[in-house]
Design brief:
88 residues, alpha+beta, 4 strands, 32% strand, globular
Length: 88
């Protein structure tokens, strides 16, 4: 998700933000960038292509994901269910 933000969502002199949170039921990763008009989309990737699989990987690994539109930019978030935690 961070690489996608760097490749498709960043503007010169504008940063992107990564936030993570862990609850008793889910790990949430959220990436915010300034390019709200560039939304994630599926695209076919040639087997030899270096790029084009980011969204497929995210969709395969997580339980749910979505895009939140902001006044400036967007946030793409994904959540993975947590089935049990071992306390240290």
């Amino acid at each position: 998700m961070c690489t996608n933000a760097l490749l498709h969502g960043c503007l010169r002199d504008r940063l992107f933000r990564v936030e993570t949170s862990l609850t008793g039921t889910a790990l949430r990763i959220a990436v915010t960038d300034p390019r709200g008009e560039r939304l994630p989309q599926d695209r076919p990737a040639d087997p030899d292509a270096q790029f084009g699989r980011g969204l497929l990987i995210v969709r395969t690994l997580v339980d749910r994901w979505a895009v939140e539109h902001l006044a400036v930019g967007k946030t793409v978030w994904a959540e993975m269910a947590v089935t049990g935690r071992a306390d240290a």
